[in-house]
Amino acid sequence: MNSNQIHGEQQARLFRMLALASLCCGILVAVRLYLKWQSLPEISSWQEFVEARGATYIFLIWNLVLAWVPYFAALRFSKMHSRGSGWFSMTLCFGFWLLFLPNAPYIITDFLHFKHKPPIPLWYDLVLIFAFASTGLLLGLLSLRNMHQTLHRKFSKGFALAVILASIGLSGFGIWLGRFQRWNSWDIFTRPDVLLLDIANTLTTWHDLLRAIGISVLLSGILLIGYGLLLALMGNQTTAKS
Questions:
Q1: What is the CB-side half-sphere exposure of residue 128 using CA atoms within 13 A?
Q2: What torsion do the CA atoms of 202, 203, 205, 206 make, to the nearest 10 degrees?
Q3: N or C terminus: fewer CB in 10 A for the chain?
Q4: What's the N-to-C CA distance of the chain in angstroms?
Q5: What is the pLDDT of residue 2?
Q6: Cβ distance 152 to 160 under 8 Å?
Q7: Model-level pTM?
């Protein structure tokens, strides 16, 4: 069995486990919805249930869907490299991956929503958010590893590492934009002028700039440590440029 086959089987196993983890996250939310519904006997419709704030944490499902985007984008980038795609299409794919990368580790900031919401036990909601956050973070770290491997095959070791480190730094800033400035990845297409103006205002306001830098560095540091641990556990199996 050659290295490509081994790598393909490893990717398949990882995909199955990530899919299983995501399914378990969905089940946790479904169980929570059922328990909450049972505690509100006067509720007879989904609209009434939502208005009664019974659909808490359902937004985590959408956040997890977004966390899968950079993972698939990194796999697509690898396939494009294997097929010898042109630099323009690969650059677009890389840009798409980088744009959505913050969505994966972003879920760890959803712990801000954590508080006791009877009748659901406190421990259940803690496990629920942790399951989503850890799955999202792992998707982000694995997409970084896949992108790192492909860049190493296409370019030099130093260039690949520099791009990954820069991506981690930009991802930390992206998480800050999403959590504290409430921007989404697609706003770069739908409202680019307002987004860029908001970023410019932050960069030119000393207090906001310090806050943005501090939070971005903290989040980037978590990603960097997590990525380092992933490489230590799985091995930095990059293939030299051919």
A1: 25
A2: 120
A3: C
A4: 20
A5: 59
A6: yes
A7: 0.90
What the block records as the tokens of 90 is 């690969």
Going by C-alpha positions, the residue among 237, 103, 117, 125 that lies closest to residue 175 is: 103
What's the length of the chain? 242
What is the residue type of 90?
A: M
- Cα dihedral across residues 129, 138, 229, 171: positive or negative: negative
Averages of pLDDT over runs of 10 residues in the chain (242 residues) are 68 93 97 90 81 83 96 96 92 96 95 90 96 97 96 93 96 93 87 89 87 93 95 67 42
Residue 13 CB burial class (10 angstroms; 0-12, 13-18, ≥19): exposed
120: left (phi over 0), alpha (psi -120 to 50) or beta: beta
DSSP string, the chain: --HHHHHHHHHHHHHHHHHHHHHHHHHHHHHHHHHHHHT-TT--SHHHHHHTT--TTTHHHHHHHHHHHHHHHHHHHHHHHHTT--HHHHHHHHHHHHHHGGGTGGGGGGGGG----TTS-HHHHHHHHHHHHHHHHHHHHHHHHHHHHHHHHHS-HHHHHHHHHHHHHHHHHHHHHHHHS---TTHHHHSHHHHHHHHHHHHT-HHHHHHHHHHHHHHHHHHHHHHHHHHHHH--------
- CB distance 227 to 172 below 8 Å: no
Q: How far is CA 1 from CA 6, 8, 168, 206, in A?
A: 7, 11, 34, 57
Rounded Cα distance between 104 and 97, Å, is 11
Which residue do the tokens 């899968």 mark? Answer: 68
